Predict the structure.
Amino acid sequence: MLNERDLTAYENLPVIPENEPERQFYYMAQIRKLVKQRQEELGRPLTAYHLCVGCQMNAKDSEKLLGVLLECGYVETDQELDADFVIYNTCTIRENANLKVYGRLGVLGSKKKQNPDMIIALCGCMMQEKTVVDKIRKSYKFVDIIFGTHNNFKLPELLYNRMINKEMIVDIWEDTTMIVEDLPAKRVYPFKSGVNIMYGCNNFCTYCIVPYVRGREKSRAPEEILDEIRRLVDDGVVEIMLLGQNVNSYGKNLETPMTFAELLQKVEEIPGLERIRFMTSHPKDLSDELIEAMKNSKKICRHLHLPLQSGSTEVLKRMNRRYTKEHYIELAEKIRREIPDIALTTDIIVGFPGETEEDFEETMEVVDRIRYESAFTFLYSKRTGTPAAKFEDQIPKEVAQKRFDRLLERVQAIAAEQCKKDVGKCVDVLVESVSEEDCKMMATGRMSNNTMVHFEGCKELYGRIVPVQITESKGFYYFGTLMPDRG
Ligand code: 5AD
Ligand code: SF4
């Protein structure tokens, strides 16, 4: 576990520290005492269940939440309904995500009637919406703790207060300039990790709720990012993913401004780090300097996620994306030209208000031309509070669904063709899992361009980068053969 501290030093402090993260370490020490006491009464460990939905940012936040709970003495469980503590880290990017949370809460509520000691916490993007919190206060009164994205670090303080007071705690911040790091984190993979380089978003795409729930853009200081990566590398990490809603505008609001490409070059210099990924890029901010940095790098992976959203300049304008179809195509083609082995992936929204058949055809045209290695396709989801929710001409569900199905079919067909290109090549693969299948040990790993490869291996390969000869395409992944180490 990362950032562990000796909690006994915090147990009997005469005053509660005001500074972060010391304040939270103090509360963790107090919770640990209560957990231990309860554990002795019950004669079994206290368990914590945690659910994370949404993007890489949420996954990273969840590692911190889980790290804190383990540090407090809870034991992780996958038995949600029998857990002593349940936390949902929520997402609100599309309506479905919200509906799922309400559905699960209903089940959890009836379970809590039988086990009133169960503590239920909700956090993440969905909680930053006032209508959601009002609904939970009214219809899901059994929820114990509600907090948001800006004060994710406060879990220990809120949990301790709830243990002492037994009343619903709601703590939502509108925005913050505070960045609290260095809390314990339980990493999912020992060999790869996400690293936040910035929080929030200033772009206000008209369909998107993120700027409202994640607040304004804040870049972390480069020294802090580099320190975190060095610590991760010392802890066995070989691949990092730099995370931000719009990494291409990294550093603009730092005291000493720095570009994302400059940050990448500094990350590249860290010895022992083998692979660098990043997510997400906005086409309007992607610079030639970044393309050059990628081209010259030995560590930056051959993968770029470049959300298109729509192929129609007219729709892009109403989405407030601030690029045209032509600009996007030019950019994507330049990237393919400069870095020929790159995989381009994208996000596309279908059924944005006012999208005509012609607009949709333009999206299909861009897809045909750019030939994405993979694409995430979404049905437009109306998010209350965003400008697009009030646009006239909302597209009927059946029309949007038909377009969505056509797009998905095209995207998948192209992806399957693209996933033939590397047959016969010998590539480096970072092994992410090894398991037994049909009496054989099979390893699964990722190429630099993010494609998965499946091959016969052994447990010792887990977390290592190994050469694999690609033998067969399976549509969206490959089969291969492990080759002798090149030394
Ligand atoms: N409806 C559908 N898709 C959306 N996205 C963001 N907001 C919405 C919405 N209201 C998609 C975008 C973004 C991805 C993370 O989610 O394509 O790039
Ligand atoms: Fe949402 Fe646009 Fe910001 Fe991405 S860039 S998080 S789509 S507002």
